[in-house]
Amino acid sequence: MTYHSLQLSSDNIYMSQVLLDKHYLRKHGDNAYYGQN
Questions:
Q1: Has UniProt tagged this entry with the keyword Isomerase (predicted)?
Q2: Burial of 27: CB neighbours in 10 Å, binned 0-12, 13-18, 19+
Q3: What is the domain count for the chain?
Q4: Which of 21, 22, 25, 33 is deepest in the core (most CB within 10 A)?
Q5: Domain coverage including residue 26
Q6: Can you say how many angstroms the Cα of residue 9 is from the centroid of all Cα atoms in its chain?
Q7: Mind listing the pLDDT tens digit for each residue in 8-35?
Q8: Band of the pLDDT at 1, cuts 50, 70, 90?
Q9: CA dihedral of 29, 34, 36, 37, whole degrees rounded to 10
């Protein structure tokens, strides 16, 4: 899937730091809310 995504628009691939932090911290941060048992 990544290969095909890069083929479509490899010149403009980036993700904002806010989105990266949200994705990481939802599982690993102090207030994690995903994947908790």
A1: yes
A2: exposed
A3: 1
A4: 25
A5: 13-37
A6: 18
A7: 765 666 788 999 999 999 999 888 888 7
A8: confident
A9: 180
